[in-house]
Design goal:
The complex is a heterodimer of chains A (about 375) and B (about 350).
Chain A: H1 2-16, H2 23-26, H3 39-51, E1 57-60, H4 67-87, E2 88-92, H5 99-111, H6 119-124, E3 131-136, H7 143-155, E4 160-166, H8 174-177, E5 181-184, H9 190-204, E6 207-208, H10 212-220, H11 224-237, H12 251-259, E7 265-266, H13 268-275, H14 280-291, H15 297-310, H16 315-327, H17 334-352, H18 357-372
Parallel strand pairs in A: 1-4, 1-5, 2-3, 3-4, 6-7
Chain B: H1 4-7, H2 20-32, E1 38-41, H3 48-60, E2 68-75, E3 81-88, E4 92-95, H4 104-117, E5 130-134, H5 142-154, E6 159-165, H6 173-178, E7 180-183, H7 189-203, H8 209-218, H9 223-236, H10 250-264, H11 268-283, H12 288-302, H13 308-324, H14 328-347
Parallel strand pairs in B: 1-6, 1-7, 4-5, 5-6
Antiparallel strand pairs in B: 2-3, 3-4
The chains are: A alpha/beta (about 375), B alpha/beta (about 350).
Protein name (chain B): P-loop containing nucleoside triphosphate hydrolase protein
Keywords (chain B): Hydrolase
Organism (chain B): Lipomyces orientalis
Chain lengths: ~375, ~350
């Protein structure tokens, strides 16, 4: 009996698997040409493709700008799918960091002999005679682990190339950084990101109303990964993903979906909702209450803050958006903005320490109101 | 006999009375077969848990209502044994890791891994994954949240997490980006009134609309509090009329008396008196944060507008200290002393502009 149960469970599992691939993985660039925006880095790397000589590399830049995608695409183009397994070691530093890993796993891989490619692979790909070690999130590696890398990088440089990926180049110790050629990854330009998202929408059959793409990009500030994840959640929420059922389990649900096809269109409010962003008019409501010069300003503000908190908006998010709204506004002078930013930084720290959201936001808004109406 | 709060708790998504759109979304998620990790946030009494249990029912059918409570024993690294209660059904499990304080990482690692590594036993189950509900996710330590991050990715075929939190501020960004955020806003006053009158109908007594309105306002948009108040009112009075007064909870009466003391006796004796009251409240397990917050809003009602910003500033300041310090009574007293001083200075007309400290 137990055999039967086992076999059925294993046969049903693969059926569920393909739908669970996050779009971020699904739409990772296949080749360097597909990488959006990063023209400089891509053009340099393409040249190395032709000459088949690669320096040690250090990629740095904000999250979601395509650092990992670029190096994976490069590796694919260099080695082809068959050789990838034996030639590339990808280590996600955030889970297995520490000196032990560097000493054992990295070093063993680095000193292993270079495998010989099959004739077929050699025909289609450059197959340079070295291996590639990708250390993702290298800035979260300990100093010790980084120092342990120094010698390894040099000793085996004949047969191994390293690619370090990090968000903050300052966290990479100088001796490592000086051994690598650095590539800075800029935040994505809006144009590129828009076309990328539109492309995905088309391929996935996601219907969306005007302005959705823009609000997704706004919510993800330049982070394409976040944008794509958001898009997927939004699509999921609106049942668009269920429109292409993979197995019969979904037959009844998709039938239910088609009864009213309207909800499958992704809307701007729903994007804002799942991104956790507070709608603009709520933020403006708070600010207007703070600016109100007539009547009982304090009472109005107190009520406005209470409403916002009871509606469950995240205080940290409110702080960020109030900051954006006021600091980028042209209506206020430098000295006022100074004071506001000082107040905001204080409150941000308090929220992180776990102080009450209600009191913190009230304090912040009262302070802002005091600053803005002082003149 | 069950409390009305439990008796009239909606059992399925279509019975939920407000946030219709949200209920629709949850049910379409439950039906789509590809259920994401959820992070449900909103103020207390807004119906987060009710909504989630209803969603689970949608996912698995009535089996989720058969729950049992297990007591599990965990061993910390310093080989101390800890007991931990787990509420579970065949399909889901509900835990409150923050009960364990700093050892919550242990629960996350051990318990979740154990759940995640076993497959759904019941073959007739509608879903192949199990659901773990984590209560009070915002009070999880950073370590525990970091541990969650790996678990969520690694075991996603077998396990879905539903995190319940009052706010997303204390949830680390990697978790937020891995979950679908679901905001549950508190019900509005009218929505509470409707629910109250529905309950009154079912219990077969008349609830004057004026009373319903007052209860709704008093509850501060907390539905649970509103229903509890209604039940208390009903059991205390034979007949509800417009003039029926709503009893204030005992602890609020104490806070009120503190307010009186603080405003009238602005001296050391006053602080001493307030201290006794504070100890009284604290020994009855009223959280210090709530005492301070209630005290502030009651004080705000009593002082001049010009003073309010300063009072708010100091309340927020000491509230922050409450969380950083170890002994809450110091900070409560400090606030009271500060307030007395502010008021004293204001009364003697020496209020000068030193607001921007």
């Amino acid at each position: 009996m137990s055999f039967f149960t086992k076999s059925t469970s294993t046969t049903t599992k693969p059926a569920a698997q393909p739908r669970q691939v996050p779009w971020v993985e699904k739409y990772r660039p296949e080749s360097l040409d597909d990488v959006s925006s990063q023209d400089h880095a891509v053009s340099v790397l393409k040249r190395t493709l032709e000459s088949a000589n690669l320096p040690h590399m250090l990629f740095y830049g904000p999250p979601g700008t395509g650092k990992t995608s670029t190096i994976l695409a490069l590796a694919k183009q260099l080695y082809g799918p068959d050789l990838m397994r034996s030639r590339v070691l990808e280590l996600n530093a955030s889970d297995e960091r520490g000196i032990a890993i560097v000493r054992e796993k990295v070093k063993n891989f680095a000193r292993a002999a270079v495998s010989t490619p099959s004739a077929h692979t050699r025909q289609n790909y450059p197959c340079p005679p070295y291996k590639l070690i990708i250390l993702d999130e290298a800035d979260s590696m300990t100093q010790d682990a980084q120092s342990a890398l120094r010698r390894t990088m040099e000793t085996y440089s004949r047969i191994t190339r390293f690619c370090l990926i990090c968000n903050y180049v300052t966290r990479i110790i100088e001796p490592l950084a000086s051994r690598c050629s650095k590539f800075r990854f800029k935040p994505l330009e809006t144009g590129n990101a828009v076309s990328r998202l539109q492309d995905i929408c088309q391929k996935e059959g996601v219907k969306y109303e005007d302005g959705v793409i823009e609000s997704i990009l706004q919510a993800s500030d330049g982070d394409l990964r976040k944008a794509i994840t958001l898009l997927q959640s939004a699509a999921k929420l609106h049942g668009a993903a269920a429109a292409t059922p993979a197995d019969d389990d979904d037959a009844d649900s998709s039938a239910a979906m088609q009864v009213d096809s309207d909800p499958t269109v992704v809307t701007v409010p729903s994007v804002e909702e799942i991104s956790g962003r507070v709608p603009h008019d709520i933020i403006m409501g708070l600010i207007t209450a703070a600016l109100n010069r007539s009547g009982d300003r304090f009472a109005g503000l107190q009520a406005a803050v209470e409403d916002v908190i009871l509606d469950g908006w995240s205080a940290a998010q409110i702080v960020v958006q109030v900051h954006d709204e006021l600091v980028l506004s042209d209506d206020f002078g430098g000295s006022e903005k100074n004071k506001i930013v000082a107040a905001i930084s204080e409150i941000d720290k308090r929220l992180l320490d776990g102080a009450s959201e209600h009191l913190s936001i009230l304090d912040l808004m009262v302070k802002i109101s005091g600053v803005l109406t002082a003149t | 006999m069950a409390l009305w709060v439990d008796k009239y708790r909606p059992k399925s998504l279509e019975h939920l009375s407000y946030h219709q759109e949200l209920s629709d979304r949850l049910s379409s998620l439950a039906l789509s077969g590809d259920f994401p990790h959820l992070l449900v946030y909103g103020p207390s009494g807004a119906g987060k848990k009710t909504r989630i249990i209803a969603t689970l029912k949608e996912l698995y059918g009535p089996g989720v209502n058969k729950i049992k409570i297990d007591s599990r024993v965990f061993q910390t690294s310093s080989s101390r044994k800890l007991e931990f209660n787990v509420v579970s059904s065949v399909y889901h499990m509900e835990i409150t890791p923050s009960d364990m304080g700093n050892n919550d990482r242990l629960i996350i690692q051990d318990l979740l891994k154990e759940v995640a590594q076993t497959q759904q036993v019941d073959l007739s189950a509608k879903q192949r994954f199990k659901v773990v509900i984590i209560n009070e996710a915002d009070s999880l330590t950073r370590d525990a949240q970091a541990a969650l991050r790996r678990t969520m990715e690694k075991y996603s075929p077998n396990l879905r997490l539903i995190l319940l939190a009052n706010s997303t501020s204390n949830i680390i960004a990697p978790i937020r980006s891995r979950t679908l955020l679901v905001r549950v806003a508190a019900p509005s006053h009218t929505e509470i009134q409707e629910i109250l009158s529905q309950i009154a109908n079912k219990e077969k007594f008349t609830l004057p609309p004026r009373v319903a309105e007052r209860i709704a306002r008093e509850s501060g948009r907390n539905l649970r509090k509103a229903i509890l108040t209604l039940e208390a009112l009903y059991s205390q009075n034979d007949k509800l009329s417009d003039s029926t007064s709503i009893p204030t909870p005992d602890w609020e009466v104490v806070v009120n008396s503190i307010v009186d003391i603080v405003i009238q006796e602005r001296n050391a004796a006053g602080i001493l008196k307030a201290r006794t009251k504070f100890y009284d409240l604290l020994s009855h397990c009223i959280p210090a944060g709530i005492i301070l917050k209630t005290l502030l809003f009651k004080l705000l009602d009593r002082v001049d507008t010009g003073l309010k910003p300063e009072v708010v500033y100091w309340a927020a300041f000491y509230e922050h200290r409450l969380h950083q310090g170890s002994k809450v009574i110091f900070h409560l007293e400090a606030f009271v002393a500060k307030f007395m001083r502010i008021l004293e200075r204001y009364m003697s007309g020496m209020l000068d502009d030193d607001m921007d400290m």
